[in-house]
């Protein structure tokens, strides 16, 4: 068998380091190449690691890293703008409870763990091209340098440069009709939410918040906006102006949203920008190149599964490469992942439609939401997402002959 021994991992965010650690466990040497010249400390808002994502991190021995920096979220409480409780998802605290983490903390923990395991991370390496020969694939970076290995893995996010090299006609990210904001508060002035994340369908926007036992906490907002806008354009408006817009959007809500917004200083506002997703990426691999994480499948933040899906895919890809030559490994990996991730992207898109509802749709949403939530709150309805587990020790089945991709052209 033509075994994979080395890999170039493009992207040093969340998916890249986890992919490198999973490859290391599979006996494959990986180096991570990050486009930005420095580490991304302090960048990003909050996110959740679902039980399925935590289980996948456990395979590479990184689940305790998340527990050390995360806050266990025992349940999600859905509410209306009037303060009425619509439903509650979840149960008692356990080792597999959903963890709420700040992306900056997760990034730093994974970065430090990757280097502790003697996996090299190189910064200032923006991918601009790749070429293949019979022995491997060579990446070209914007600084003029090159690197060669058996395979190249694009873990470079929703705006992936690797995806464009694999398929120049690949779809661009889709705007969901929502802008995202958040803040991390040292003192919320509210009692603890006791491990519960509150999700509020506000009268004009969606609001999520949690308060920790020490009184600190955080919130996020999904603000409907029909016209697409870039992150740069959103940031040009300025934090102070956006806080005024958000306060106005929640002024009529009978929830903690107005209070938490009033306690937020403009310097604390995280302008995340337009929420996007990737419903379908037709081509995940070509020749010696393959995609993982948001580069291949990017659910919107509304899914609560983005990071967890990236971790699952990283582990499954490494498992396939452990057992099969790279072309058949890529085909097996896609077969194992595509249906699941596209189902989760679709679920997140349906949630976005409720969040971005117009005036008439909001009336209908608020009318039918209580009954819908009672149906969805049953644990068995969410088991397909949260109970998914990867059997690392099981051998990967070889896909049917011919289930491979064409070699990528030099670019």
From TrEMBL:
It holds the Pfam family FAD_binding_3. Gene3D superfamilies: FAD/NAD(P)-binding domain. It comes from the Bacteria. GO terms for molecular function: FAD binding; monooxygenase activity. The keyword Mitochondrion does not apply. Residues 7-345 form the FAD-binding domain. Keywords: Monooxygenase, Oxidoreductase. This is FAD-dependent oxidoreductase. It comes from Rugosimonospora africana.
């Amino acid at each position: 068998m033509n075994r994979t021994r080395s890999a170039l991992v493009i992207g040093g965010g969340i998916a890249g380091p986890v992919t490198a650690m999973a490859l290391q466990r599979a006996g494959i040497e990986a180096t991570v190449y990050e486009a930005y010249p420095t580490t991304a400390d302090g960048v990003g808002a909050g996110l959740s690691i679902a039980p399925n994502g935590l289980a996948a991190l456990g395979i590479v021995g990184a689940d305790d890293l998340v527990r050390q920096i995360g806050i266990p979220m025992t349940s999600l409480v859905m509410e209306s703008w009037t303060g009425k409780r619509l439903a509650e998802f979840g149960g008692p605290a356990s080792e597999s409870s959903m963890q709420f983490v700040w992306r900056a903390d997760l990034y730093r923990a994974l970065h430090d763990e990757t280097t502790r395991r003697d996996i090299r991370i190189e910064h200032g390496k923006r991918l601009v091209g790749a070429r293949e020969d019979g022995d491997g694939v060579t990446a070209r970076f914007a600084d003029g340098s090159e690197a060669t290995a058996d395979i190249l893995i694009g873990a470079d996010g929703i705006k992936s440069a690797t995806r464009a090299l694999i398929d120049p006609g690949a779809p661009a990210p889709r705007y969901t009709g929502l802008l995202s904001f958040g803040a991390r508060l040292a003192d919320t002035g509210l009692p603890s939410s006791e491990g519960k994340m509150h999700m509020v369908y506000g009268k004009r926007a969606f609001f999520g918040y949690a308060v920790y036992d020490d009184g600190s906490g955080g919130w996020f907002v999904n603000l409907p906006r029909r016209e697409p806008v870039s992150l740069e354009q959103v940031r040009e408006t300025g934090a102070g102006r956006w806080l005024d817009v958000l306060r106005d959007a929640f002024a009529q809500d009978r929830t903690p949203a107005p209070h938490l917004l009033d306690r937020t200083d403009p310097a604390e506002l995280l302008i995340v920008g337009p929420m996007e997703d990737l419903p379908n990426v037709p081509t995940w691999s070509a020749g010696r190149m393959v995609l993982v994480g948001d580069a291949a499948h990017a659910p919107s933040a509304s899914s609560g599964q983005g990071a967890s899906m990236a971790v699952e895919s990283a582990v499954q890809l490494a498992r396939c490469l452990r057992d099969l030559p790279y072309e058949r490994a890529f085909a097996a990996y896609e077969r194992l992942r595509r249906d699941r991730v596209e189902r989760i992207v679709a679920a997140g898109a349906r949630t976005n439609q409720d969040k971005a509802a117009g005036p008439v749709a909001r009336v209908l949403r608020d009318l039918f939401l209580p009954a819908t939530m009672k149906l969805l709150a049953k644990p068995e309805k969410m088991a397909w997402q949260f109970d998914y587990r990867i059997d690392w020790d099981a051998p990967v089945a070889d896909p049917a002959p011919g289930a491979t991709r064409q070699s990528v052209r030099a670019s």
